[in-house]
Design a protein that fits this description.
- The chain is of the alpha+beta class.
- Helix content is 42%, strand content 15%.
- It has three domains: 188 residues, no CATH class; 153 residues, no CATH class; 83 residues, no CATH class.
- Strands 4, 8, 9, 10, 11 and 12 form a six-stranded antiparallel sheet that branches.
- It starts with a strand and ends in a 16-residue tail after the last helix.
Length: 501
Amino acid sequence: MTDSATLGVDGARVDQTGPPALERVWAEAFPELSRAVSPARTVQPRLLAFNDELADDLGFDPAFLRSAAGVRVLTGESYRPGTAPVAQVYAGHQWGRFQPILGDGRAALLGERHDRNGRLRDVHLKGIGPTPMSRVDGFAVVGPMLRELLMGEAMHALGVPTTRMLAVVATGAPREWEDRVLPGAVLARTAASHVRFGSFEYVRAQDDPVLLRRLADHVITRHYPGAAGAAHPYRALLGEIVDAVAALTADWMRVGFVHGVLSTDNVLVAAETIDYGPCAFLDAYEPGAHFSSIDREGRYAYDRQPSIMRWNLERLGEALSPLLAADPAAAAEVSAEIVDTFDARYRESWAGVFRQKLGLSAGVDLAVAGELARAALDLLAEHEIDFTGFWRDLAAAADDDEGPLHGRFLGYIPELDAWLHRWASLRPDAALILAVNPVYIPRNHLVEEALRAATDGDLEPFERLLALVRDPFRERPGREHRRFADPAPEGTPRHRTFCGT
């Protein structure tokens, strides 16, 4: 393959032949936190899903990446000279216990690429085979990789900061998975970066203040440049991460998303959602809902996500503490004070996004909107009402048709009428409600149905569901689309998820 390229209409580099040009920002800046890897050769790679929009945004040539040669770029087997995939090293608290070294056990950073807005993005592969940090064989299978693409695209369409998936490639190699033999796959994804809370925890555990400062400076330059001009840049950095994480967590709560495994190695300092393994979406509103087969105590349940993210920020603050003050006691105090701001920042973000869900203008006081939202959630919990459908039905109620909303409840509910009266007095906007409350989300039973079919070779259910969640606010007519907006049929077993990513 030749090494030629042209410039797109906006000056972005578009590779016409050969593997795309990538930078090596992380690998060159942090060799101590990188391990060279050699992605495994695939038997018969076949493209299952490809994100043309994302490829275009990165200035990639979709036609090449769809070709036989391009597919092997997406599995990490072929890359331009000078590019070299690396597994990143990090630590993390998993289930509350510190693991001093984790790292990419089945993944590799292929390099970085500037998108059309000039933002640097990681190009990352998952399911490539063993790495120096592997705890299992390092391979992945079709179902979990397609789940990650589906969930990431849904979250992006819902306006939630997220990693995004470029492609899923079937490798042609069968893999043993939970006593079954399933088709293997590799996922290609992008992120603002893959620097995790656990990256700082690993460096802190090495007792290397120079490396810690270098890593913090890297994150400031790449993600939070405003902190560089602060009187105390590293304190400002921690504060900005707290703010971004508070907003991200409020977004999860807004859409009824349950991540499922919020360990510090699964949280990015750039505050993008990552690792859609045991995640799920709420059907009937249940504050303590958790779906992961191994989360027996509900550590990562829906209503515990704010508290666990604060806990994670405390661990990040501890890792950053040598940069916050010279005296360890003073540094610990500064870290605690900064992380303590999470509660107020989260409450404000939460009230703001739920004010929008209620269709209320910015002129409505956040405290009033928050109290009204909490009262609504109490009703949903008491009567086991579908989370997504309730908020969407508020649009009809705002236009004086309360029938759809009342239809979700059994019998006459005086508390609902009282709530609707209070809400209507604030003059909600039906158009705003429709703009922020989706018709379609990745309903758990539909996701499993689509992934089972895809694993057996039928991609049509997956592609149909993907198309809907990529455009979730536009209702499609016809009975055939109604099932995609409804919760699981009555009698459906409780959803369980497994960490396959």
